[in-house]
Amino acid sequence: MRVVSLVPSLTEAVAVSAPGVLVGATDWCSHPAGLDVTRVGGTKNPEVDRIVALAPDLVIANEEENRAPDLDALRAAGVEVLVTEVRDVPQAFVELTRVLHACGAPPRPRWLDEAERAWSSLPAPDRRTTAVVPIWRRPWMVLGRDTFAGDVLTRLGVDHVYATHDDRYPRIPLDDLLAAAPDVVVLPDEPYRFTADDGPEAFAGRPCALVSGRHLTWYGPSLAEAPRVLARALRAARR
């Protein structure tokens, strides 16, 4: 079996569950560390010819992270493409099971069981918190409706302000974000790399939680520790 992954979280899931199956991955596929496969460009601009040259049995992709024209070009070249859709935590587990099965991985890798237990045994939050969740600046963009990261936060007791916006990732002027007066601003380190020196200064006086984008937005082995890691970051911001 020869697999190319165009989704960083799926790359990690397949690499640790079916070693040796992956032959290609994007430049953004950073986990597991030291993954030695051919790099095929970015998630939004994969090198189709390089992927085809790898003669994969399967390319795994995601309807949000990858562009339809690139996937259509792969299909036109005779490559089988499996496209996932992940909008919430339960759907992540369904799609992960489907991907791992398609890649010939064991039916229930240990990390997947651990991740499902972690999310099914979450304690009820002591209180609910409102948040805005920027994912980009210049222009400012935030989590909107129907997103995996939004569902992750909701399950941890965080209700993001733009959850009912018409757009999934709306552009909101900074003044409007400030006027929303959230309890906390959640700043992940991807896709935009917010840091202690780049992001919080725009929300002076408002608690900011700097969180791992891998734990907030990835659906793979990181799901097992995501509730604990994210909850700790959120508690630190609210102190």
Structure description:
This protein is α/β, with parallel strands linked by helices and about 240 residues long. Helix content is about 35%, strand content about 15%. It has a 5-stranded parallel beta sheet with strand order 3-2-1-4-5, with helices on both faces. Strands 9-6-10-11 form a 4-stranded parallel beta sheet. A two-stranded antiparallel sheet has the order 7-8. It is globular and about 55 Å long. The termini are far apart. The model has no long low-confidence stretch (mean pLDDT about 95).
Task: List its traits.
five-stranded parallel beta sheet, alpha/beta, 239 residues
The biggest sheet amounts to:
5 strands, parallel
Mean pLDDT: 95
General form: globular
Q: Please state the CA-atom Rg, rounded to the nearest Å.
A: 18 Å
List the helices and strands and how they pair.
Blueprint: E1 3-5, H1 8-17, E2 22-25, E3 38-39, H2 48-53, E4 58-62, H3 68-76, E5 81-84, H4 89-102, H5 110-120, E6 129-132, E7 134-136, E8 141-142, H6 148-155, E9 158-160, H7 174-179, E10 184-188, E11 208-211, H8 213-217, H9 226-238
Parallel strand pairs: 1-2, 1-4, 2-3, 4-5, 6-9, 6-10, 10-11
Antiparallel strand pairs: 7-8
Task: Provide a brief overview of the structure.
The chain is of the alpha/beta class.
